[in-house]
Design goal:
Blueprint: H1 3-28, E1 49-52, E2 57-58, E3 61-62, E4 66-67, E5 76-81, H2 86-99, E6 105-111, H3 115-125, E7 131-135, H4 139-144, E8 151-155, E9 161-166, H5 171-190
Parallel strand pairs: 5-6, 6-7
Antiparallel strand pairs: 1-4, 1-7, 2-3, 5-8, 8-9
């Protein structure tokens, strides 16, 4: 075999490998996972019925679960969370902040969690939710198109999903994205 052919057989696979590695590296940073589109935007929220988190109380009363029917009549924010989710802990103070606004309902969808752990989480960090439903199997999460926790959905008064946020909410996201989307949904609801 001549020397030129021998070098080509070494260089060609190396060039192909480096090209693919460069492409993968470029694509690795080429998207914001929080901007994952949802097929539910503009459509009615899926049908579901979530049982209450057992033995969870607030104001000396049991905290109820919730269903699709509860999302009609008022703007709603549905927050998908779990006690085992570290970003959910970071996000929780912003859910508490959201709960202070009585223009909409705040629902907690407890995702693939153990009841004892979820109660401890809410006992430790506070329960900002009007209702907490448990989705131990993840079936309802699948119907909502949940990729992971935390995720937050804004639902208009007619029960249609207006916005989906993937990932934890922080101060900047709350002020620059979530509250403006809620305001937009409230205005859209009042004009219907």
């Amino acid at each position: 075999m001549n020397e030129t052919l021998s070098r080509a057989l070494i260089i060609i696979p190396l060039v192909v490998f480096l090209s693919l590695a460069g492409l993968f590296y470029y694509r690795l940073d080429a998207g914001d996972p929080s901007k994952v589109p949802s097929a539910l935007i503009g459509r009615e929220a899926p049908e579901f019925q979530l049982d209450a988190l057992p033995d969870l109380t607030g104001d000396n009363e049991p905290v109820p679960g919730f269903s699709r029917a509860d999302l009609n009549g008022a703007v709603s924010v549905v927050n998908v969370w779990a006690s085992w989710c570290v970003p959910c802990r970071d996000e929780h103070p912003f859910m508490v902040e959201l709960s202070k606004d009585d223009r909409f309902k705040l629902y907690g969808l407890n995702y693939k969690d153990k009841a004892d752990n979820a109660r401890r989480f809410l006992g430790r960090y506070g329960n900002p939710y009007d209702a907490v439903g448990t989705d131990q199997t993840g079936r309802v999460g699948i119907d909502w198109g949940v990729y992971g926790v935390p995720e937050t959905f804004i639902v208009d008064a007619r029960g249609r999903v207006a916005y989906k946020h993937v990932g934890p909410i922080n101060k900047a996201i709350l002020e620059q994205i979530i509250m403006p989307k809620i305001e937009e949904t409230l205005v859209g609801t009042s004009s219907q």
